Structure of Tripartite tricarboxylate transporter permease:
Amino acid sequence: MEQIDLLMQGFAGALTPMNLLWVLVGCLLGTAVGVLPGLGSSMAVALLLPMTFALDPTAAFILFAGVYFGGLFGDSTMAILLNTPGQASAIASTFEGHRMANDGRAPQALATAAIGAFVGGMVASALVVFLAPTLVALSSAFGPPEFFALALFAFVATSSVVSDNVLKGLAALIVGIGITVIGVDGVSGLPRYTMGLPQVFDGVSLVTVTVAILALGEVLFIASRVRRDTEDLEIRGAKGRPFLSRAEFVDAAPAWARGTAIGLPFGVIPAGGAEVPTFLAYEAERRIDRRRRNPMFGKGAIRGLAAPEAAGNATTGMAMGALLALGLPVSATAAIMLAAFRQYGLQPGPLLFENSADLVWALLASFFLAMVVLLVINMPFARLWAKLLLIPKPHLYGGIALFCGLGIWATSGAVFDLVLLLAIGVVGFLMRRYDYPVAPLMIGMVLGPLAETSLRDALLSSVGDPRVLVSSPIAIVIYTLLAAVIALSVRTAVRSRTRRDV
């Protein structure tokens, strides 16, 4: 098949010594950041974004992909060992994974998580290889009305799903879109919301916003919560066999399969990332466990850990496919990677596969390599990763703040951008402090220009007739799905309020 030939060419590019080095470095960095509570792949990619411009695009995106997948592995390690998930996508793994650790089965729990993530990631990567041409063909049928509908779907779906409070999600989205309209309008040539400052006539840099919101904002939030008492962190049960017995493997295998099946569709649905499918996978296993003669949930059920881990990496793998073929970021980290493509003058979508086929297929091949590398470095070295928590917080977060400033200075060399970094970092701190989701802001920041340009082009082509926005079957399908998402969100909100009233 043509896809197999292209993938083999991709492996030829990815297996060069330098690219293999970047796979390893990305996996190590992603895992190292993931095991630090409060950090994650989105922050790691944000910090690396201004520092990778010296690399060629293929090496840079192989590095980013390794960080993306490695962050999920690291998040799960801390969720299991210390009941401290690095990101929301690892929360579901704490329920049964930490109970396994408390029972002295931490190595088995870590092995379950590593194998589950490997299975989910490999299946998703294989599907991306075979479905990418189909997604590219589908994306070639998109025009301005369809792209506007897709952006609108991403806006509303992300805002309503990733936050318990829909209004907070919409507020974060509006902030992100509002930042994108600052600068000189490309059509009229008039400045918009610049407050007379010539430094923002070209707009606010996406790199500055990304680093400020995800990295500096997190540093300020952690600094505001530092406690005076310092407790030693105990790493429980980190000794023993880092593999599963035959009985444990047989018990976990169906959960890995079900979790993978649940996670795959969410890779192309703008639902904020892997948080939703991991909880759905956990809930599905819990319902199945209730029917067993000897229910294990609440006692360290291996299936309750296997399913969320497989679902999370399956979603991440498919999200990369959606990003490459459709240019659709379904999570904050994917949005940052889309920004990275644009920094290199590349636009994900059908033209990317035509104009940069070497980059795309080398990147797809690196997904498989990253899965293998992560399995190798995580199963035997989990205890070593946990020791990173012993780094004093002032040193750790002080270093992150320093890298934030150095990265922005390296990209612009302007004091104004450093001031802007601090100001937006304060906004990121306030969002964390008052529980406003970050993903809608990033999605709004990245897709805002696409939505505005598509809306203008569609209306110009129809001489101002708004019916053009619903003139194609694809647009109608997208709006139907959007209505279903809104209805589901309203139903969930009404149910939760009814339960509180009762």
About this structure: The radius of gyration is 22 Å. The chain has a mean pLDDT of 79. The chain has 20 helices and two strands. The first helix runs from residue 2 to 14.
